[in-house]
Amino acid sequence: MQPQCDLRGLWLLLLSLFLLLFEVARAGRPVVSCPAACLCASNILSCSKQQLPNVPHSLPSYTALLDLSHNNLSRLRAEWTPIRLTHLHSLLLSHNHLNFISSEAFSPVPNLRYLDLSSNQLRTLDEFLFSELQALEVLLLYNNHIVAVDRSAFDDMAQLQKLYLSQNQISRFPLELVKEGAKLPKLTLLDLSSNKLNKLPLPDLQKLPAWIKNGLYLHNNPLHCDCELYQLFSHWHYRQLSSVMDFQEDLYCMSSKKLHNVFNLSFLNCSEYKERAWEAHLGDNLTIKCDTKQQGMTKMWVTPSNERVLDEVANGTVTVSKDGSLHFRQVQVEDGGVYTCYAMGETFNETLSVELKVYNSTLHGHHDTLNTAYTTLVGCILSVVLVLIYLYLTPCRCWCRGVEKPSSHQGDSLSSSMLSTTPNHDPMAGGDKDDGFDRRVAFLEPAGPGQGQNGKLKPGNTLPVPEATGKGQRRMSDPESVSSVFSDTPIVV
C-alpha cells in the first residue's frame, strides 16, 4: 500500500512540473537563469563593474533595464544579443571603452527609450546610427571624443527629447537638430557645452522658439566675441532662459586669444539690449505668438484695455488661434498697445507682454513720404534759382546802364554834381529847334544841406531844355537811393 502512495506522489510532482513548463512556454518566456556576472531583480539586470569584455549572451527576453556600465566593452556589434529584447526600455553602457557601434546594433531593442553611451571613446557618429531607435527619448553621449556628427545620424528619431553632446570636440553647430519642424520635433534639451564651437548661426538661433532656446546649452565654448553674440545672450537673459541663467558665469567668448564673459564686452561698445515692439501698418494682417518656455501650455490673451481676447470677437479684428497665437486681421490704429499672454502649464506658469505699434499709413506709406520730400527739395531749389535769376539776370534799371561814350566835343561832360536850369545856347547852333537837341540823361548827386539845385551843366553843341514848369526844386537826402531820383520825370538835355 505504501509503494502505491509513493507512486501517486511522484506522478503529482511530474504533473506539476509539466504544467509549470507549459505555462512558461505559453507565456513565451524560456527558462533562462540570471547570468553569472549579473545581479537580477525581477526584470532589472545589473552587470556593472564586472570587467566584462563582451555582453553576456544569456539575457532573459523579459529584461526591461540592462546596466552594463563600468566594464571593458570596446565594440558593440549587431549580434551583441542573440534574441530580441522587446521589453528593454533602458540600456546603460557608460564608462566603457566603446570606439565602434554598428549601425545595426540597436535593431534588437526597438522599444528602447533611454540610452547612456557617455564616457566612452567614440569619435564619430555615422549616418543612420540611431535610426532604429524610433522610440528613444533620452540619449547621453557626453564625455566622448566625438569630432564629427553626420547630418543623418539622428534621422527617424521623432520621439527624442533630450540629447547630451557636451565634453566632446565638436566644432560645427548641428543646426539641423534644432530647426523648428526638423527631424527632432520634440527635442527640448540639446547640451553642446564644453566643445570647440567658435561660430554660431546667430540669425537662425534668434528665430528659434523659446522652448528650444530654454534647453540649448552653449557654455564653455570658445565662441568669437562680437556684438551680435552679446545681443543674442542678452535676449535670452531677458527671457530668463535656463540655458543662460544656470550657467551665466560660464558663458564666455574669445577675443585676441583672451577669454571674456559674454555679458562684459565693454571693449566692443555694444549697445544695450532692448526688447523690440511688433510693428505693423494700417490694414496689415499680423500673427503674434505667445513664445513660452514650455510646450503644451494653456494660453490666454488680454488686450491693452484689460479685456480677454476670445476665439471670436465682436469686430472680428483680433482673434486667438488654436495654438494660442494672437491674430490680427486688417489691423487698425486703435489695435496698438501692450498685449499680455498668460500661459499655464503643469510645472509652472508664465506671463508675457508684447507691444504692438501700428503706423497710420499703409505698407507703402514710406514711398509716398519719400516722394513728398523729393518734391519739396526740388521746389526749394527752383525757388532759389528763380531768385538768383531775378537778382542778376533781369534788365538793369538806369543806374545799371553803362556810361555813354562822350561826344567828340570836350565840353559835353558833367563836371558838376548839380544840374543848372539856365539854358546855355551854343552860338554856332542853327537850324530847327528839334534838330539841335542832343538828349542825355543826367545823374544828380545829393546836394549839401541847405543847397538847392543851382549847379551848372557845361554846354556842348546842345540846346538845354528848360525844367518843366510847376516842378519845384527837389532835395535828396543821404539815405535816398538813386532810384528815388528817377521816380520823377527824367531830365533830357
Question: What's the helix and strand layout?
Answer:
Layout: H1 2-26, E1 39-41, E2 44-46, E3 65-67, E4 75-76, E5 90-92, E6 100-101, E7 114-116, E8 124-125, E9 138-140, E10 148-149, E11 162-164, E12 189-191, H2 202-206, H3 210-213, E13 216-217, E14 223-224, H4 227-238, H5 242-245, E15 252-255, E16 258-261, E17 278-281, E18 286-288, E19 298-302, E20 318-320, E21 326-328, E22 337-344, E23 349-359, H6 365-392, H7 482-485
Parallel strand pairs: 2-3, 3-5, 4-6, 5-7, 7-9, 8-10, 9-11, 11-12, 12-13, 14-15, 17-23
Antiparallel strand pairs: 1-2, 15-16, 18-21, 19-22, 20-21, 22-23
Would you write up a description of this structure?
With 493 residues, this protein is an alpha/beta fold. Helix content is 17%, strand content 16%. The protein is built from 7 helices and 23 strands. The protein has a 9-stranded mixed sheet with strand order 1-2-3-5-7-9-11-12-13, with no helix packed on it. Strands 17-23-22-19 form a 4-stranded mixed sheet, with no helix packed on it. The protein has a 3-stranded mixed sheet with strand order 14-15-16, with no helix packed on it. The model is unreliable at 24-31 and 405-493 (pLDDT under 50).
